[in-house]
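Known limitations

Structure tokens in this collection are predictions and should be treated as such. Users comparing against experimental data should check residue numbering before alignment. To illustrate the layout, the record for Arylsulfatase is reproduced below. The input appears on top and the generated tokens appear beneath it.
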Amino acid sequence: MTTASPHPPSASGIFQGRIGTTFEESTPWWPDEQALPEDTPNVVVIVLDDVGFSDLGCFGSDIDTPAMDALATDGLRYANFHTTTLCSPTRACLLTGRNHHSVGMRMLSNFDTGFPSGRGRITTAAATLPEVLRDSGFNTMAVGKWHLAPMEQTTASGPYTQWPLSRGFERYYGFLEAETDSFYPELFYDNHAVAPPKSPEEGYHLSEDLVDRSIEFVRDQTSVTPDKPFFLYLAFGAAHAPHQAPQEYLEKYRGRFDHGWDAERATRHARQIERGILPPGTELAPRNPGVVPFDELSDDERKLSVRLQEAYAAMLDHTDHEIGRLMEFLERTGRMENTITILLSDNGASQEGGQKGSLNPTAFQNGVPEDLEEMVARIDEIGTTRAHANYPWGWAQAGNTPFKRYKQNTHEGGVRCPLIVQWPRGLPHTGEIRQQFHHVTDIVPTLFDLLGLQAPPVYNGIPQLPIHGVSMAYTFGSPTAPTRKEAQYFEMFGHRAIWHDGWKAVAFHQRGTSFDADQWELYHHDTDYSECNDLAKERPEQLQKMISRFWVEAGRYDVLPLDDQGFAYRAKIPRPGSPRRRTTFTYYPGMAHLPGAAVPPVMNRAHRISAFVDRAAASDEGVLVSLGNISSGYVLYVKDNRLVYEYNFLGTRYTVTSAEELPIGPAELTFEFVKTGDVQGVGHLYVSGKPVGSEAIPRVLPHFLGWQGLDIGRDTLSPSSPGYDGEFAFTGGFEKVVFTVAPDEEGNEPFERID
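Generated tokens:
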């Protein structure tokens, strides 16, 4: 027999055996398996959300965080570590090793600004850490908050190109938005939405669920391929608002903060100096503008603020307990010894609770003040399923002790964050503190350094951006080595800063004002950690040198154009290709839960919602359309043979009910909102074109209806109305729901009137 010609090249390379006519005349060959060195460590990256520099016990707090403190005892604490001052940008830096403007994430992934720096997605010119690790032989898994996909693309129709499984992770479980209710989260498993595995009444809490899933993923991987390393990215919702925790944790902190934020800051500051987190002589920054001395608050203000801080502490404590469960599992399965664990917060403590605190984040986003008396009346709901709480500025500044300002700002209160690195097998020193200046872009090059990997110059045929960070591995064995970081810029919502060679220049920007009017400050960080002594007037030449360096860095890393437009304003503007860029929307019962970023833009617009049903009996009832949760939203439903519409304005409910019972059989059940003023209107109900009810709706939210999305034919997750129990799924025949929306806020009647 004659032999065949050599086998052609294939996707796995050129076949190096011999192929004959039969197997007896052929020589098999197998390509070498890609294998990492036998002792390659696992990697666990844990991201906390909105946790201030001093909030962990090992960074100065008396909040109980024994699991994180244990990581610090067996690892290293970095006291001069910085982030971008906002969640999506920090995550983009963390997973790429590049600056956030350069990769397209100037602020939140919710928006596309129309400029390269603000696409709201990570460019494919920046391969992610999980992409590189997966291709190098790691199993990769992500659990928790993602917030790196364009939010209008997080529906069941995708596109999925920026979801975790498309950016290097093989497994995913968590939520895709900026925040979620910890008792009623919007959850996704791989590429589809799922319901929480149990209810709050059955003991559900998101943090516990995320650790359960992390353990499941690692257990599956370890059981089948114990020889392969894994990368686990665990990004908690905690301690981003809403601050919610199991009742026993809430009770644990009763009375713990009665002394107030001024005393708390002083205690943490002294503790930080005593423990070496801050150099001796570091000053405590003055109160931020708007922070009132605690002793000058009214009794009700003190009572409310303390309860809000208790909920935050309870949530952080509970999260620590869950981290402890994960660490115990790794220890029990023999994976802890050779696992690099990195724990950080994504930015400083949040100012989004306002001056007096909040029970409703939608109020903050819409610029609507909350009534103190009403909040105090609801004080026992704080931390539970019935409130979406966030603490006031005073406690946020205490979280950022000893620094100025908060999340979103480029002063140290926004960008200086706790970082812990633990690696039992690999760290030459443990229990120590490192003071070298570093930034979140430095995590990827550090891991590449430790794992013996390199960033690919070309990935999937696309030339790659260079890594912008520097490895921190040199600090492991050299406590006093000078930092290898040369410079780092910061920019967010027009706030700007530049660090270089121990100096920092920073400008606070007032939204809506000229950038040219911003006042730059100058601090010598090597001697003034807390930015208390502004040297701008004493050292004008140094200041100008720093400002010039900022503009150089801004040009190098695509920071321009400066943009100070806020979240609420942008929430109304759909990006090109968004499913919201229509005026008519048709939905069918049984469709997947629709995330809030992709729902019809009915906020402060004339609109109509028509449900086409066929009821066999007067007992057929249930939800037709539901959007929102306990904080805000709307719902259209049938109950007691009547059509009901409820609009939840930050807890105040405006209801329109049909004046007569509904007919049996096919019907078009319609709600119509007609504007009569800037943020007000009238709600009308119709049954097959016949008017059956009308009520004034004196207040509607101008910009933002909340984080939780829309359901058709039922009310999932946090209930939209107290008028029914559970999902209250519609029991009759149900064809579809059609939304018709005015093209803009000015249109009062964008369609033919029913009457």
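For this record: Confidence is low (pLDDT under 50) at residues 1-11. The CA atoms of residues 582 and 743 lie 8 Å apart. Please report discrepancies through the issue tracker.
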